[in-house]
Design brief:
about 425 residues, alpha+beta, Heat Shock Protein 90, 2 domains, elongated, HATPase_dom, phosphorelay sensor kinase activity, transmembrane helix, kinase
């Protein structure tokens, strides 16, 4: 809802209430006017005007500049008409004008519609009309003029600030949505294209000959693509969606930890309520190089969230392969807590040096930044790293139950 809409509703209520107040005031002072019929005629015209146009101030689309000018003309006309229908003694004694406080509604309309500059102009017109009606600069007249002018300008300024804040918020939400989509695409690229290029580079270098040249070119393309992704140049709009990576069946230590890309495997069909057993997605990682521990009962998450969690575990195991070596052993532990699913990936490698994660993110290596931390953030969960040099690394992934990718809840990732 626009921040202006409550203001328009408020001014509509103000105009209606002040019209009732003004009608009562004129009715009580009817016998004191020199020409009471003139006062009644003006109030009748004002009432008809309000009855025909009260909906004009309920939204900015209906409240046009032409309407505001005519509305202000009714207020100014009533102020000037007061000197013709009321006695000079009553006017000099401080008697209110015919439109009385209803006049402020016309000024506030200008303030909400056009900001403080429009409000200043409308307030100045009302001030001149009051001075002409009193024919002197009395203290109470000056006070009323200043109050209307300050109130109109202040509300107009607040409206301008609110509009600027609303535009800034809308822009920030657009940037956030584009950034989240860019990160999602970057994760998919990291889990597929970059890993394939890295494997081609290593295999080509090992084989030699023409394959070595192919490996060199693959390495150059990998570096260029990492720079492209890290620089935020992946287009978030119009790109085809890529299914999240899901691990394939492992046949040994090399497949579980040492392979750059595991064969694709379809996600197990979700249950009737759309949930999926996390154990079924993580069990294929088990092998000679990976020990998998699970509860005896199903550990259920929404199917999309379970697939994203499995992809994050896959990225964590790939980090074990790259940084701990093919001889490292990894352990996967799944815990089913009352409000969240906790998956811990631990290895017996050399550990992560202090500051290495931040350096890797700056270098465009997105395994931690996007494939793990980004996925958990989008699920409303957390990713925490505990590493002691020489004693291995432990990655703790926590996903709240009921979470889904791009959901409303967002957790803060810890590193």
């Amino acid at each position: 809802m626009s921040v202006e809409l409550p203001l328009w509703r408020a001014i509509t209520g103000y105009r209606i209430l002040t019209l009732v107040y003004t009608l009562c005031q004129v009715a009580l002072s009817y016998r004191r006017y020199e020409h009471p019929l003139g006062a009644v005629a003006y109030m009748g015209a004002l009432t008809v005007w309000m009855a025909l146009t009260w909906r004009r101030t309920t939204s900015p689309e209906r409240c046009t500049r032409q309407f505001l000018i005519v509305d202000l003309a009714f207020a100014v006309g009533g102020i000037l008409l007061t000197s013709l229908v009321d006695s000079h003694a009553r006017i000099m004694g401080g008697a209110p004008t015919l439109p009385s406080i209803w006049t402020a509604g016309a000024v506030l309309g200008f303030a909400i519609k056009g900001g403080w500059r429009w409000a200043a102009v409308a307030s100045s017109v009302v001030a001149v009309a009051n001075l002409v009606e009193r024919q002197q600069l009395a203290r109470d007249t000056l006070r009323n003029v200043v109050l209307v002018w300050v109130a109109g300008v202040a509300i107009g300024y607040v409206v301008e600030v609110a509009r600027a804040s609303e535009r800034t918020l809308a822009r920030a939400l657009q940037i956030e949505a584009a950034t989240r989509e860019r990160e999602r695409l970057a994760r998919d690229i990291h889990d597929s294209v970059l890993q394939v290029l890295a494997m081609v580079q290593r295999r080509g270098t090992a084989i030699g000959g023409e394959a070595a040249e192919l490996g060199r070119m693959a390495g150059e393309q990998e570096a260029a693509l990492r720079t492209l992704v890290a620089g935020g140049l992946v287009r978030p709009a119009g790109a085809a969606a890529v299914a999240p990576y899901v691990p394939g069946p492992a046949t040994g230590a090399h497949d579980a930890v040492g392979s750059a890309v595991a064969p694709a495997r379809s996600v197990p069909p979700p249950a009737a309520d759309g949930s999926c057993d996390v154990r079924a997605l993580l069990a294929p990682f088990a092998g000679a190089g990976v020990t998998f521990s699970e509860p005896g009962a199903p550990v259920e998450l929404p199917a999309a969230a379970a697939a994203e969690l499995a992809a994050a575990v896959s990225a964590a195991l790939d980090n074990v392969r790259v940084h701990a070596g093919d001889g490292a052993h990894a352990w996967i532990l799944v815990e089913d807590e009352p409000h969240a699913v906790l998956v811990t990936v631990r290895d017996d490698g050399p550990g992560i040096p202090e500051g290495r994660l931040a350096d890797a993110e700056r270098e465009g290596r997105l395994g931690v930044a996007l494939s793990i931390r980004g996925r958990l953030r989008d699920l409303g969960g957390t990713a925490a790293w505990v590493s002691v040099p020489g004693q291995g690394t432990e990655v703790e992934l926590t996903v709240p139950k009921g979470a889904a990718p791009e959901g409303g809840r967002r957790g803060k990732s810890r590193s």
